[in-house]
What does this fold into?
Amino acid sequence: MLEVLQVEVGLLDNFSTLLAVPSGAAAIVDPGFEADRLLRIAAERGWRIEAILVTHSHDDHVAAIDEVAAATGAVIRCHPLEVARVRARVGVGVSEVRAVADGEAVTIGDARVEAIYTPGHAPGCVCWFAPTVPAVITGDVLYVGSCGSVSDPAAFVDTLQRRLATLPEMTRVFPGHNYGKTPTSTLAWELVANPAFAAATVAEFCAYKGLRPPGA
It folds into this structure.
């Protein structure tokens, strides 16, 4: 069984998420701030951070990645578009930074976490889906009751309607920020209550976000 532990870090309501199996193998998603605290939490539970999973490389999601990488030597996995930026932040010779393919499974002990390409907030966004929980760690793509800022409206609608909405409805949603009424929710709740999912077309999504539709 994969344990999911959400930790609020920093002053921007960020969440980092720890994933661990009973053997102690663990991963951390988006070490944004407070590296010492995140490492202490893992150590107190006997968890060995073997992988660092990145949803995207905006500063508030990776500000502590260099410290966590230096302390653990964990392999870093991210979207191909994010590899150069993450490598520059981590530095040479600290940790291996490897691109992850859409649908690729990263192993944490005997558990698997799947990468889902989810562009729209940023071109190189990845949501991390743990099918055995089930849970999805969504970064800035999906918050509880809302969604993140938009770089590409059409891509964002495709991400929501075709990539996330098709996951099992009982999937637990772990966002990258504590911006909702609760720290987590379920996909079933989001599909009913989140206006981002109610916007089925690009025009409707742009109206929800207060954006000018493409070509308008």
